[in-house]
């Protein structure tokens, strides 16, 4: 994979520090940790995800319950134009909140609403390839909004700390309900130099909460926008879904019977390119790559973008063409599917990949079963242009959902 390599942002003078740099320097959580800590914590996180149903049938049921709550809420908009962002974010976030905190939140819950907004602001104001990451001195300029970002991160931490404290108060080791409980149980083992510290817990929750909400929700918002731009594809997908499922609940067993839905989703992921820079990494040892010397500790930004738009893999890369993922028999697969890397690759591949794929399929299929998605103004369709923050997100837009 082609890598863009930027100079190290290691020597950072006194406060206020860039939150991204603080995260990197803490070396805690999953995204910014490495070595033995990362290995132990990644194993623990994936085991706990599986224990609470990831990849199992019960998770599907939980996601579908959330999808149904969302559909009910959306029906209330009638045929009025509205921006779906906050409602969709809340719904997607609830899936990960159930795993982390053992509960979902009402969309109207004011604390939850505020948290979702903070998270969205964090994703839209932070950019890993921003000049301020390379030249930390720029953080003093108001345009880089460092103080705003710091405040957002602190507020998110406060919410998480509160939830951990509630769990600590009610902790019962014979009743482990969610990720926080499972982590607190590990803490009771009192292992010397344990990686299960309070700080590690807070940061991991923040990362799960952030990674599990904005990425998936942003991909869905792109998918709705592509459906608005390509009503022919909307008709095709609806026809296929009507034939295979009708109005019954979609399940993952339907996915293979709906190759068009998968091909459409893959093409959206390719063009929307929600995480074009994956997560930055730094090598722990000096090494050579294609003749370039890369010293230990270099801040490296991985360009997934270069893969998604590689004309050797995806001919006419800027053209929306889900057919590229379908073979002559209409089956979704082949080299192009294998080479698409929206979740990155290797040992650091996205931990939530299977959950995200499940969510994308179930949310999108239900949307198409329930609604015809239309632009607010057919003469002025919102642009398919992204803005780069921590994710590549579409500009805010209004849509109309017409009940089918
Ligand atoms: C469409 C949705 C998603 C996309 C496009 C996506 C993409 C990514 C990418 C590109 C990375 C960086 C991999 C690297 O470092 O090279 C990543 C890491 C990660 N993602 Fe996702 N993600 C999505 C959904 C989720 C969900 C739902 C979760 C929650 C369970 C999640 C949890 C994580 C975690 C914990 C990491 C850090 C893994 C590690 O460094 O060991 N992601 N994701």
TrEMBL record:
<protein>
    <submittedName>
        <fullName>Cytochrome P450 2C3-like isoform X2</fullName>
    </submittedName>
</protein>
<dbReference type="InterPro" id="IPR002401">
    <property type="entry name" value="Cyt_P450_E_grp-I"/>
</dbReference>
<keyword id="KW-0408">Iron</keyword>
<feature type="binding site" description="axial binding residue">
    <location>
        <position position="350"/>
    </location>
    <ligand>
        <name>heme</name>
    </ligand>
</feature>
<comment type="similarity">
    <text>Belongs to the cytochrome P450 family.</text>
</comment>
<dbReference type="InterPro" id="IPR050182">
    <property type="entry name" value="Cytochrome_P450_fam2"/>
</dbReference>
<dbReference type="GO" id="GO:0005506">
    <property type="term" value="F:iron ion binding"/>
</dbReference>
<dbReference type="GO" id="GO:0016712">
    <property type="term" value="F:oxidoreductase activity, acting on paired donors, with incorporation or reduction of molecular oxygen, reduced flavin or flavoprotein as one donor, and incorporation of one atom of oxygen"/>
</dbReference>
<dbReference type="InterPro" id="IPR001128">
    <property type="entry name" value="Cyt_P450"/>
</dbReference>
<dbReference type="GO" id="GO:0008395">
    <property type="term" value="F:steroid hydroxylase activity"/>
</dbReference>
<keyword id="KW-0479">Metal-binding</keyword>
<keyword id="KW-0503">Monooxygenase</keyword>
<keyword id="KW-0349">Heme</keyword>
<keyword id="KW-0560">Oxidoreductase</keyword>
<dbReference type="GO" id="GO:0006805">
    <property type="term" value="P:xenobiotic metabolic process"/>
</dbReference>
<dbReference type="Pfam" id="PF00067">
    <property type="entry name" value="p450"/>
</dbReference>
<dbReference type="GO" id="GO:0020037">
    <property type="term" value="F:heme binding"/>
</dbReference>
<dbReference type="InterPro" id="IPR017972">
    <property type="entry name" value="Cyt_P450_CS"/>
</dbReference>
<dbReference type="GO" id="GO:0005737">
    <property type="term" value="C:cytoplasm"/>
</dbReference>
<dbReference type="InterPro" id="IPR036396">
    <property type="entry name" value="Cyt_P450_sf"/>
</dbReference>
<dbReference type="GO" id="GO:0006082">
    <property type="term" value="P:organic acid metabolic process"/>
</dbReference>
């Amino acid at each position: 994979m082609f890598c863009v390599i930027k100079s190290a942002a290691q020597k950072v003078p006194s406060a206020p520090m860039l939150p991204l740099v603080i995260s990197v320097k803490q070396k805690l959580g999953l995204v910014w940790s490495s070595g033995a800590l990362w290995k132990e914590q990644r194993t623990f996180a994936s085991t706990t995800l599986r224990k609470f149903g990831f990849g199992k049938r019960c998770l599907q049921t939980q996601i579908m319950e959330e999808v149904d709550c969302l559909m009910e809420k959306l029906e209330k908009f009638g045929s009025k134009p509205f921006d779906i962002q906050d409602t969709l974010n809340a719904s997607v976030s609830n899936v990960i909140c159930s795993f982390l905190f053992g509960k979902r939140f009402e969309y109207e819950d004011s604390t939850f609403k505020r948290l979702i907004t903070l998270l969205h602001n964090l994703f839209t104001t932070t950019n890993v390839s921003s000049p301020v990451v390379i030249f930390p001195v720029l953080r003093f300029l108001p345009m880089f909004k460092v103080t705003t970002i710091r405040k957002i991160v602190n507020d998110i931490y406060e919410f998480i700390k509160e939830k951990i404290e509630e769990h600590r108060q009610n902790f019962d080791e014979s009743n482990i309900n969610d990720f926080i409980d499972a982590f607190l149980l590990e803490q009771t083992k009192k292992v010397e130099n344990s990686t299960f510290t309070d700080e590690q817990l807070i940061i991991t929750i923040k990362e799960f909460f952030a990674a599990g909400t904005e990425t998936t929700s942003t991909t869905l918002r792109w998918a709705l926008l592509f459906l608005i731009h390509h009503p022919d594809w909307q008709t095709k997908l609806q026809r296929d879904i009507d034939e295979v499922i009708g109005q019954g609940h979609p399940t993952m067993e339907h996915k293979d019977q709906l190759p068009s839905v998968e091909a459409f989703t893959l093409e959206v992921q390719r063009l929307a390119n929600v995480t074009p820079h994956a997560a930055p990494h730094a090598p722990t040892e000096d090494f050579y790559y294609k003749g370039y010397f890369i010293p230990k500790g270099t801040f490296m930004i991985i360009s997934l973008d270069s893969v998604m738009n590689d004309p050797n893999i995806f001919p006419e890369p800027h053209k929306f063409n889900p057919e590229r993922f379908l073979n002559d028999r209409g089956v979704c697969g082949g080299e192009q599917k294998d080479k698409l890397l929206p979740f990155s690759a290797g040992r650091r591949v996205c931990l939530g990949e299977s959950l995200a794929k499940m969510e994308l399929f179930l949310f999108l299929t239900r949307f198409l079963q329930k609604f015809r998605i239309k632009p607010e103004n057919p003469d002025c369709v919102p642009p398919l242009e992204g803005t780069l923050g921590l994710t590549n997100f579409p500009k805010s837009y209004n849509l109309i959902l017409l009940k089918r």
